[in-house]
Design brief:
This protein is an alpha+beta fold and about 110 residues long. The protein is about 10% helix and about 25% strand. It contains one helix and seven strands. The strands form two sheets. It has a five-stranded antiparallel β-sheet with strand order 6-5-4-3-7. A two-stranded antiparallel ribbon has the order 1-2. Strand 1 and strand 2 (about 10) form a beta hairpin.
């Protein structure tokens, strides 16, 4: 940079100026471990909050869920269990690894 006649600073013609700010590191001690666990659980289950799903098979527990029941994913916890609000008017928690579901178009 060269000072101008009135004290302002000017770039040399072949000098580059930095446009982007320096990147912030992602792996810090202050990283949100709970958020990372929740993201991993959502990826593992293959569903996200607000997604419409349909039960493929009857549930193996005493919940009364039947193949063809439809609902909306309300929550995914960090253990991979999914809370669903069913169209029949109740809410229940399922394990998508043991209770297969199919994603539906919104």
């Amino acid at each position: 940079m060269l000072p101008g006649a009135n004290g302002d600073r000017r770039r040399r013609p072949n000098q580059r100026c930095r446009v982007k700010l320096a990147a912030v590191e992602a792996d810090k001690p202050a990283m949100d471990a709970q958020g990372a666990k929740l993201l991993a659980a959502r990826i593992r289950t293959g569903v996200s909050v607000g997604m419409r799903i349909e039960l493929v098979n009857d549930a193996s527990d005493s919940s009364g869920l039947r193949a063809g029941d439809r609902g909306v994913v309300h929550q995914v916890d960090d253990d991979g269990r999914v809370v669903i609000v069913w169209d029949r008017g109740f809410e229940s928690e399922i394990d998508p690894e043991r209770t297969p579901v199919q994603k539906l178009a919104a």
